[in-house]
Amino acid sequence: MGVLTGALCACSLVAPFSALRVEGADAGPDAAAVDREAPFDAPAPDAPDAPDAPDAPDAPEAGAVDIGLDAPDDAPDDAPDAEPPRDVTRADVSRDLGPADDQVVPVDVPPDRGPVCPAGTVMCGVAGCVDVQRSLEHCGACGNRCALANTTEHRCEAGVCVPRACEATFSDCNNNPADGCETNLRGSPSNCGRCGNVCESGLCRAGQCTSWGGAFAENACVQGTCNTPNPFTMQCACMAGTRPVTGVNVLRECAPGVYAFATLRFCAGNGSGTSEWGGSFVTSSTGACGNPNPFTGGCSCPTGSAAISMRLVDTVPSNGNARRLSLCLGSDLGFGFGGAYLRDDLNNCRTPNPRTNQCSCLAGYTAQAVRAITDTVDGRGAMGGVLFLCSR
What we know:
4-stranded antiparallel sheet, mainly beta
């Protein structure tokens, strides 16, 4: 039973308290309805029977009795909106209620080591799982890209980069894949033209063994200067792997009526010469051997070579005392010496080149001009001339 609260009028109650009906009772024709909106949470215990109360005088008409169940008058008209419902997650429950019996509690674990690659592969960053035994971009190790010297194609075998195809004129002669196609067959004396082809002369040019290392002459008129440089070195010196042989004195005119000798030196490789160049020698006007051929030890050409002879004078006038310079030219056309020829100052072809049968070089050869004095056609006088040496 609810507790009745409220102010009674100053006069005494005219009806017994038990006469008031709260739940579903008729309060009388003139009584106002009792506010019953708020339910009671639990029934009140049975009260003991009250003793009979004395009769009370009739109650005057009165308004509704406030029994304290209505909301207070000072309650705000607008209550704040209720928070909308939200989804309740398992984490919320775990925070509020603690872990459930079947909840997995996080524990400390080692740092993430990334995905596990299949057997035979390794993780190479963004490239993913890679077979480093065969990958050209990751050969043997991540990031080790196959890029071998002088190769046009290569492959990765068992984690090692190996050449598959070499650039033109290059080859892998040492069978070491680490340095790719290391050998230039055009210039290697140990692998000239092909792997294992050793040049006896120690000189390989354009893939062929040669003994010809060019020629040069110092300036006879100005001592210590170079008048005719070697086309292979562009100075008065022999190229690497060759040595100067057969110094030939060549008379030159420094000024009108003033002459001096310059020494023309030929450069040759080791050995006994090759098929295109067989050395040189000089004989006197009487045929005596003045400067022997280093390849034969005498005034002769090696077997298979022929002499290109031209007359040079030591005095002016010559009086028939012209020396003969002989250059030995082999039968094979190599990438070294390509013959020689002599013209006088009247543009007469005094000594043609056996390679062309005229005063010229074969196509692809360079003519090196050496100023000299030769005799006249009748053999008694002297005149200027130019000796041309053909090289490539």
